[in-house]
């Protein structure tokens, strides 16, 4: 298009109509930067996260998915900060661990939502049946993964006892690297506020709850900051 006047060079540089492709690319870039900043902030402020998904959707009933997740959020009674939008795995993965491979998060499938929690003991995790199976109009939302921060400023009672217990149950948790687990025990031993017996009891109960909901696939982040457990069935 020829301009009807002698336009400045700046006007000639850009087309008279917006480039929709460039605008969409800019929009994606801004959104990715925003999500990355938000995920980094949440991972710094909380020491636990849950991965939820709609495991048994009832396609016969027309229910707004946003309403369904909002109802699930209310069912958690404010104990978990559940994000209203689905998790962007592409943005979250490098925030959690830049070296985390696609194979290691192979089980992170489907329309995943993420919730964050701060705890001081493993007993405060929402892993019993009251919290792990939300049903609304025959739609079922369940957690299929959990991440626990290992190097946070707040001690988590029972965390330092996970390693010796996993040694005892190595057949169930055989994929977790031994050195990584040993690092957990050494890192938390000096600052533990619990006795050996009570801490071990808390840790054992935690692992039993994970087994009951079939979250038995462990992964340690490369920076040893997070211990992840996911379900092999998702």
Structure notes:
This protein has one domain. The chain is built from eight helices and seven strands. 38% of the residues lie in helices and 17% in strands. It is of the alpha+beta class and 234 residues long. Strands 1, 2, 3, 4, 5, 6 and 7 form a seven-stranded antiparallel beta sheet that branches. The model has no long low-confidence stretch (mean pLDDT 78). The chain is globular and about 70 Å long.
Which regions contain 5 or more consecutive residues with pLDDT less than 50? none
What's the overall geometry? globular
Count of DSSP strands: 7
Q: How many discrete domains? A: 1
Tell me the structural class: alpha+beta
The residue-averaged pLDDT reads 78
Assess the beta-strand content as a share of residues.
Answer: 15-25%
Series of secondary-structure elements, N-terminal to C-terminal: HHEHEHEHEEHHHEE
Oligomer: single chain
Portion of residues within helices: 25-40%
**Biggest sheet layout:** 7 strands, antiparallel
What is the gyration radius calculated from CA atoms? 22 Å
Enumerate how many helices there are, as a single number: 8
Q: What is the distance, rounded to the nearest whole angstrom, between the alpha carbons of the first and last residues?
A: 54 Å
Protein name: Similar to Saccharomyces cerevisiae YKL208W CBT1 Protein involved in 5' end processing of mitochondrial COB, 15S_rRNA, and RPM1 transcripts
Brief synopsis:
This protein has 234 residues and is of the alpha+beta class. The protein has eight helices and seven strands.
